[in-house]
Write a structure and sequence with these properties.
327 residues; alpha/beta; Rossmann fold; N-(1-d-carboxylethyl)-l-norvaline Dehydrogenase, domain 2; four-stranded mixed beta sheet; 12 strands; globular
Length: 327
């Protein structure tokens, strides 16, 4: 396959490395220090079993590449509007676009059916620019269930097992979905198809929409957040609201909040991606993780008092540091 990865940080670097190492023609859109590092030393990855390196074609503009078979979007949510405006030359009629990102995507209700079919999420795509730039027919949804970091440009540190869930927005089982799962499995991922990728997205969000902003607010790792009984209670109240919203929109969750938090506790002293962003002075992904849940709560007629408190505090914290736009 001809593959272009947009966003060669921790997650995007994993995709680019695995696909290049398994024989695909991989390129990446990059700038600045990342572009320089990729051209000088290749893309490097360590997963505890040693360090590897692959050469990929690193370019600044999509026009240098032309249409691709697969485009992986692995940028942070605040960077997506600008990134989507640059990828037009990569998109042929049959190109698959795979967003490998945190939070709720702009296309969440496209093909989902039910009362909210076709609804737009203004919190993540306020002007509809992303939806205009990326044809709906191109999309396959993705949920990333592994951790990774980027200690320096061009270097990815990740775990040995890298689970993924993939699904058509319509829930259909298609040839291209099966082929993509097989391709990614051969590239070192544990890729499984889903019959309702929106439910998988909502379930992951249910677990990390509290930990990410609370870690950014407090500077605490996940274990310390869970160890504080008052903060843990606040997390459970937020999760209860999100669970009720999920039930209203067709994304029910059978698990209890305490059970989901027990899974999070297994990660130990884990530093969330949002805390890493705050420490690095990068814009935070609040809208995809929290604002969008609040917006959907409004659509579904569900009150969100605890989600509102979390969003207000996290938004103010980020604004005072220049990491979230002012109104």
């Amino acid at each position: 396959m001809k593959v272009c990865v947009v966003g060669l940080g921790a997650i995007g670097g994993c995709f680019a490395y695995g696909l290049a190492a398994s024989g695909h023609e991989v390129a990446g859109l990059a700038r600045g220090a990342t572009l320089d590092a990729l051209r000088a030393r290749g893309l490097r990855l360590t997963d505890g079993a040693g360090m590897g390196s692959v050469a990929i074609r690193a370019v600044e503009t999509a026009g240098d590449l032309g249409a691709q078979d697969l485009v992986v979007l692995a940028v942070k949510a605040p960077a997506l509007p600008e990134a989507s405006s640059r990828i037009g030359p990569l998109l042929g009629f049959d190109t698959i676009v795979l967003p490998a990102m945190n939070g709720l995507p702009w296309w969440f209700f496209q093909g989902f059916g039910g009362a909210f079919e076709g609804s737009s999420l203004r919190s993540v795509d306020p002007a509809g620019a992303i939806a205009s730039a990326i044809p709906a027919r191109s999309l396959i949804g993705c949920v990333v269930h592994y951790g990774a970091s980027c200690p320096e440009p061009g270097l990815v540190k990740t775990q040995a097992t890298r689970p993924l869930i993939l699904g058509e927005p319509s829930g259909r089982s298609t040839d291209r979905l099966g082929a993509l799962c097989a391709t990614l499995s051969a590239a070192g991922f544990e890729a499984e198809p889903s019959s309702c990728i929106q439910r998988d997205i909502w379930y992951k969000l249910w677990g990390n929409m509290t930990m990410n902003p609370l870690s950014a607010l407090t500077g605490a790792t996940m274990d310390k957040i869970l160890d504080d009984p008052l903060v843990a209670r606040f997390c459970l109240d937020i999760m209860a609201e999100a669970k009720r919203i999920g039930a209203r929109i067709g994304c029910p969750i059978e698990q209890g909040g305490e059970d989901r938090m027990a899974i999070s506790r297994k990660l130990g002293a884990f530093k969330t991606s949002m805390l890493q962003d705050v420490e690095a002075g990068r814009r935070v992904e609040l809208d995809a993780l929290v604002s969008a849940v609040r917006e959907i709560g409004g659509l579904a007629g569900e009150a969100t008092p605890n989600i509102d408190i979390l969003l207000g505090l996290a938004r103010l914290h980020a604004r005072t540091r220049g990491l979230y736009p002012s109104e």
